[in-house]
Write a structure and sequence with these properties.
Blueprint lengths: L2 H12 L6 E5 L4 H17 L2 E7 L4 H4 L3 H23 L8 E7 L7 H7 L4 E5 L13 H9 L4 E4 L10 E5 L7 H14 L2 E8 L8 H15 L5 E5 L3 H12 L3 E6 L13 H8 L4 E5 L1
Parallel strand pairs: 1-2, 1-4, 2-3, 4-5, 6-7, 6-9, 7-8, 9-10
Antiparallel strand pairs: 5-10
């Protein structure tokens, strides 16, 4: 195989967004079921398998009891969760979908990444209330923890979408070349829906402000990395989060996609943990892609 053929193969691979196996973490809340319903629509669209995953998370107080008490209480919670998950799997919108049910006793949310890798998951679809202060499993800040640690794309859903269609998608990044692969993945995902993809850079006041000359240089560098000439919106706002939300709102966007960083979870997106905050606050669906 020549280097040119190898390059073509890489480009072809970058145009694909696999969605053959979806993982949906479930806590039996309304938001979790919203995510499951969206996953069901994606599964039908791509002939995919869904693994419904519940983390029992037996507490330290239980584990501190005698071995017999621990076993009995663990069995009780396992049985209760199994009954609930089977009831959930009988929902009409899951009919005809290949389902897997997975129950495990994990305590920290970062371990979901291990489950996703073991199950060869292509996409994690999960729910979030979109506001902080909740201790319920997979709600609020716990969504951020999954987003922060995931090596796999995560789609965060905030409300019910009986007809999950995407026409307009916003891809927001800092225009550094390291985000080029995330852009290619975002483009491939948009193509599966026939959606229009808009690129935006949020320029804020303060130490992170870029002049017109600096923005132009960074834009040229990014376009060179992705090998395309396309428009990039430079949007000014008081914060990156507000800028992304306000720009997406002006477009009436259906989804926001942002890149994440592998070394420190989602840190280094723009200049802080923007993705983690947005996973908890932005109202529309949000997808994160690992750089």
């Amino acid at each position: 195989m020549t280097s040119q053929d190898s390059s073509k193969k890489e480009n072809n691979n970058s145009q694909n967004f696999e969605m053959k196996h979806l993982l949906v973490p479930i806590d039996f809340s309304e938001c979790a079921e919203y995510a499951l319903e969206v996953a069901a629509q994606l599964a039908k669209r791509h002939d995919a398998t869904i693994t419904i995953f519940h983390m029992i998370g037996v507490s330290e107080s239980i584990l501190s009891k005698s071995e017999l008490q621990e076993q009995e209480e663990a069995k009780y919670y396992m049985k209760l969760a199994r009954e609930k998950i089977k009831m959930l799997a009988d929902k009409p919108y899951l009919k005809g979908i290949n389902l897997k049910l997975l129950l495990q006793n994990y305590k920290i949310f970062e371990e979901i990444n291990l489950v996703a890798e073991e199950q060869k998951i292509d996409l994690i679809v999960m729910g979030s209330h979109g506001r902080s202060g909740f201790s319920t499993f997979f709600v609020g800040s716990n969504t951020e923890k999954v987003v922060r640690s995931s090596q796999i794309p995560v789609l965060v859903v905030k409300k019910r979408h009986p007809n999950f269609t995407l026409d307009i998608i916003v891809f927001a990044c800092n225009l550094k070349p390291e985000n080029s692969l995330a852009y290619q993945k975002a483009k491939a995902f948009a193509n599966t829906f026939g959606a229009k993809l808009y690129l935006v850079y949020i320029n804020t006041m303060g130490v992170n402000f870029l002049s017109d000359i600096e923005v132009e240089a960074r834009t040229e560098q990014f376009l060179g990395a992705i090998g395309e000439k396309l428009p990039i919106k430079i949007y000014n706002d008081y914060s990156v989060e507000d800028g992304i939300f306000n720009y997406a709102k002006t477009l009436m966007a259906d989804l926001v996609i942002i890149p994440t960083h592998g070394r420190k979870g989602i840190a280094h997106f723009f200049w802080g943990s923007i993705g983690e905050k947005m996973a908890n606050t932005i109202k529309m669906p949000l997808m994160t892609l690992k750089i």
